[in-house]
Target: AMP-binding protein
Amino acid sequence: MTSKFSQDLDQNPGNHQPLTPLGLLDRAADVYPDRIAVIHGERRHTWAEYAQRCRRLARALIGAGIRRGDTVAILAANIPEMLEAQFGVPLSGAVINSINIRLDAPAIAFILQHSETRLLLVDQQFADVARQAVKLSGLQLDVVDIRAADVPDAEPVGVIEYESFLAQAPTDVALRYPEDEWDAIALNYTSGTTGNPKGVVYHHRGAYLNALGTTLYARLNAGTPVYLWTLPLFHCNGWCYAWALAAVGGTSVCLRKVVPDEIYAAIRQYGVTHFCGAPAVLSALVMGKPKDWVRPETPIWVACAGASPPVTVIAQTEALGFEVLHVYGMTEAHGVNTTCVVQDAWAAMGDDERLRRMGRQGVRTAVAGDMIVADPSTLQPVARDGKTIGEVLFRGNLGMKGYLKNAEATREVFHGGWMHSGDLAVMHEDGYIEIKDRSKDIIISGGENVSSIEVEEVLFTHPAVFQAAVVAVPDEKWGEVPCAVLELHPPYVGTLTADDIIQFCRARLPGFKTPKHVIFEPIVRTATGKLQKFKLRDHVAEIIAKREH
Amino acid sequence: MTSKFSQDLDQNPGNHQPLTPLGLLDRAADVYPDRIAVIHGERRHTWAEYAQRCRRLARALIGAGIRRGDTVAILAANIPEMLEAQFGVPLSGAVINSINIRLDAPAIAFILQHSETRLLLVDQQFADVARQAVKLSGLQLDVVDIRAADVPDAEPVGVIEYESFLAQAPTDVALRYPEDEWDAIALNYTSGTTGNPKGVVYHHRGAYLNALGTTLYARLNAGTPVYLWTLPLFHCNGWCYAWALAAVGGTSVCLRKVVPDEIYAAIRQYGVTHFCGAPAVLSALVMGKPKDWVRPETPIWVACAGASPPVTVIAQTEALGFEVLHVYGMTEAHGVNTTCVVQDAWAAMGDDERLRRMGRQGVRTAVAGDMIVADPSTLQPVARDGKTIGEVLFRGNLGMKGYLKNAEATREVFHGGWMHSGDLAVMHEDGYIEIKDRSKDIIISGGENVSSIEVEEVLFTHPAVFQAAVVAVPDEKWGEVPCAVLELHPPYVGTLTADDIIQFCRARLPGFKTPKHVIFEPIVRTATGKLQKFKLRDHVAEIIAKREH
Model:
């Protein structure tokens, strides 16, 4: 840039302010003061009230000695206080650490220690595990108990209850907006699919941009959205939806238990327009459809992620009056980074092809920057042929700051100037990506890559198969071969042999992709619902070794 | 921020890239390659083609010796090449200077000189004025002529035609994305309402954020928007809509002549969903309604700015099937900064009250940061009483870098850490602002502030009044008094006296706001349609002085 366009044209407070989602709360309270921001059972908060409660929480935290850059953790279901913490904790200058409610006490204790949590907010539903975790952590923690009318009373973990804590907030302290948009706003621990939990650090800039991007792809700006909290707020801060809803003055409907009855009840009672969930949530909705369900005139928008929704699940969900959008992202990148944008031309392709295309991970969002599928070492993009496998890499403003206190893992994930997703995918001719495997879960058999996901997809088309996981086992001849671990639907248990399954696959897959071993047993998942294939691999290898000797 | 959330958590290319609207073009070309991006008469470009033409323009400019930070100007109507320049010029590393086509040769020459323009793109409709301006400027300029099928041939100004220029673009040069989001992207000269033209410098960060903000408030993300270019692209780069449309893969319908017949024809032919314009455009649409106009099922969205749309104009426009949103902003802040968000509760208030509220300037957009109405010296916000007048001040990321080569004016407009709009407004109880005057146009009579706009609004309710302008004239007793300059509708000319008008106002306004003088004569506006009240004041003062002596 030559001098004339930079001379005497500096940044100043009038033309440059830190990007942050926190300002969206102030705007929502100003523009939509009387609109309902939060619904939980009989409870209602307008945006003015919600903002006031968030600010009170921030001031209470400051009053309790929380300083800029401290960690404040919360262990809670999707209740109003969890929504308040998404703004209230950062407004105190602290970093919000939303802990997975499905973890056990030792895992929570590890997170409290590693994050150096100064204060913990506990939903009384999780009082017991929180008490154990705090004890195990050995930390001198301040604990604030959140009492709720919809769960049984529990013995308090700390010495003060949430409402009393808010009530004692000083009124004369200033809220702490970020000094720089690169300041941390949130901390999210990911178990990943391998190794120890890592603390993913979010920045205000990324959180703000993803909030804006979310309003765009989810069309939250059409009318007043009513968003149902099926997606846990401890996953990527609810994919940034709490912040996105502030940008449009939308309504949050809290949900303690993500079960079909409660979801359908909320949809009917509050006119839900949007929600998010894993394919399992969609399947549950299909199975749990009320007898008197009437397909809504305007489809209810639902974003689906975590795994590719099977074609039949999309079709059945659509038939109920839901509009499904498949999205993909990762904890390390503020949540959603791609959406499977539905092209007009797909409508003419027939349902099979249309639904198959809708199951892909898709294209980058307007705020996600660049995305390539590439060789992770050379960074050379793969051909757009729907066949060549590479790693999904991102470069833009949604990448996390890095892993807390883990410079090595941070360097590794960003090596070569791209954020490495660890997911292997192909790029189709139309520029849409389709995930084929986790990079560490690919099976290399006779020098050929075998996508465990591709084999699982074939297994899922067998009517007897309820759950399926495919992993590599060592093989003298081929190096590795695929092994299928299967849980059958109850009526089928004991009616099928390993050979039946192998025959079934052989008819549908090339030989090198066909499982050589089949094991019938329950599939164990982590608290976040993830399959840890590195563990399953070891387990399966032992079984096979025993069988063969 | 304590160390743990900043240590080893630095920015790197994987998590931090300059914000810029230029990446939105790449994404649109990837995601919507076959959608129509540009329509002009028989001409069509898909997003893939549009992107390719923009890139070719950028490479042609680089091939012609344009360097980072050079100025490339364009003098063109809203034709496809004007849209191409919005991306193509910045992709060459240059700053785009879109020149007002209504200016005369000396004014254009001034802009060419002041901006140090290196290359000028000229729509042949403006060949004559461009030729004169280049000559007057004394600059050795490269000129590229844009030939168009829809205007008469003109003698070329330069030595190469646009299509030949594109054809000679080198293929082996890299496009120049910004090195920093604070780099300049555009230059827009504003005549303002006082003094000399000033060069407003836009930054990539602000352009990107306003593009995202625009998709939100204009709901460009619902389906495929078809945007009609009634708003000149030389006003704030078309309020950033060319960039916003890339974020959603929308369609631009070009329009050389903004007249009702052409607007209605485009609406019918292309299914226009969105456009923008001054209240005069709305009035023209009401007057020029085709006899066989059928109110569309889905209202056509129209943003209106430049002056507050009168209640009757909003009502009539709505009745034709348009949804009107009043927006407000300024060249100095990347275009639109506030929108008059329509509240659900207004529907129950009756049309008079609802339409009156819709005519206010409203509330800040989601990307506009903070806005206050305050005493410009003390920066103390005024009461939310709808009465106390203060200046509209902004603080956020939409403020320009500043005025080119005018450090003093830049310092002045940003003094106290806020961007001073120069507009005087009140803040209503509901947080909506309403502009009352330009700060330099307020009339101070007997120590009381008189808003010239308020008096004009009363005058407009008189059936005979076609145009009205109220300015201060010196008065021995009161310091200043209001003087009304009026253009009457033809049938009324000669039927009314100054006293008739004064009586009419006295019945509707307090004495100190009632005009003491009335002059019947045509009202002169600038090329941008602005009324330069400082000139009118001098002119009126002379007339009054002559009358009184």
